[in-house]
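Hey team,

Filing this mostly as a record. A colleague (T.K.) asked me to run one chain through the structure pipeline before their review meeting, and I want the input and output archived in the tracker in case anyone asks later how it was produced. No errors, nothing strange. Just documentation.

Input sequence:
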Amino acid sequence: MWIPVAICLAAIALFLGPILLMQPTASQRREAKLRKLALDHGLRVHLQQYPEGAESDGRTKTIASYCLPWADKKDAQHAWVLVKKKYEHGLHFSGRWDWNKKAEGVNLTALEQSLDTVPERIIAIASGPQGLCCYWNELGGEGVVDEINAWLQRTSGELAGFGR
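Output structure:
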């Protein structure tokens, strides 16, 4: 009498086991929620390699890049990357921020002033065809996404149209 019950339970386990294993983990659900919020703000999310010179957290080989597309494609012509270093140095562009790929044709004064208000969790900032981007490890809540969005909106407005 117990053998048919055990066979039925084993069959159910064999059926449900793989389905339950395909469920996203809590951290995957959290990242998906953050990325959905970013999309709702009009940002594009890319997974990219860490910029050269940026410090990796060692968890993954890629990092999330939250990008605000340029309103005018002419602003995408000037590609540059700024990376946050461990320490301040007089040779850096501004405090802890130093060039990975130096900017040309960009309002450096406005860019330097905007670095004072960059959200703390940002490890690199870039500009290129994809827009103005912030690299971060997504170890924060929805408030960080809101901060990144506000900073990108404000800074892209300050940098847009320079040199034309």
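Quick notes for T.K.: The chain has a mean pLDDT of 85. Residues 2-21 form the longest helix (20 residues).
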